[in-house]
Amino acid sequence: MRLVLAEDAVLLREGLVSLLTRFGHHVAAAVPTAEALLEAVAEHAPDLVITDVRMPPTFTDEGLRAALAIRKAGTKVLVLSQYVEQTYAAELLDTGEGVGYLLKDRIGDVKEFVQAIDQVAAGGTVVDPEVVRQLLGRRRAPINRLTPREREVLALIAEGKANAAIAKELFVTEAAVAKHIAGIFTKLDLPPTADGHRRVLAVLAYLLT
Q1: 89 or 207: which carries more pLDDT confidence?
Q2: CA 28, CA 46: separation in Å to the nearest integer?
Q3: Fold of 2-138
Q4: Please, are residues 180 and 153 in contact by the beta-carbon 8 Å criterion?
């Protein structure tokens, strides 16, 4: 299998190259930055990319953003990191088959790691349970902030009801419903945006609980 590897820590990068080579894979390029990763993928057209999340210059989410672009272009991707970078992780895992997200500190068996690589390359999905836990926790935690009445209102929104219908069903005024909805948006971290419908996003958050 032809691989491209992105890891900014030189010792780990070289160690992974040695390990992957030992198991019969060809590492076409091993690079330290997300920019170099994109260039290497364009040059070598690998079967699979293995990348860290936090790389130069800002050490935030460069690697994961590059991974998302690479996956959307059709190349299979395995993220190997110490961190669950939630901003783009869910979007990456939602790109379909041939994707993985493993945490470095939780890999306890080399052969299982290599098997995970083979599984992703074959079109499977491999995700560390801790990654799943954190992503679900991020989605569900805001819902727990809602009051029982706000949950009632959100449930009725999820049924497609307008403010007037909600007010009639709950025997309150439309002004009270509007106040509850404003509270829901605030607690779900849904500020006004030009490109997002907050009622829809709130319903999605509700349905994911």
Answers
A1: 89
A2: 8
A3: Rossmann fold (3.40.50)
A4: yes
- The string over 108-117, giving b where at least 16 C-beta atoms fall within 10 Å of a residue's C-beta and e elsewhere, is eeeeebbebb
In the chain, % helix, strand, coil (3-state, to 5) comes to 55, 15, 30
pTM above threshold 0.70? no
Could you say which of 3.10.20.30, 1.10.10.10, 2.40.30.20, 3.30.450.40 is the CATH number of the domain covering 146-207? 1.10.10.10
Residue among 53, 42, 57, 147 nearest 92 (CA): 53
Could you state, in order of their start, the residue ranges of all structural domains in the chain? Answer: 2-138, 146-207
DSSP-derived secondary structure letter, 105: G
CA distance 9 to 185: 41
Residues in contact with 52: Cβ distance below 8 Å, sequence separation at least 6, in sequence order? 6, 7, 8, 9, 63, 79, 80, 81
Nearest CA to 145 out of 89, 199, 184 is that of 184
Residue 106: CB atoms within 10 Å: 11
SS3 28: strand
Task: Look at strands 48-51 and 2-6 and give their pairing.
Answer: parallel
Region 35-44 average pLDDT: 97
Q: What is the pLDDT of residue 138?
A: 60
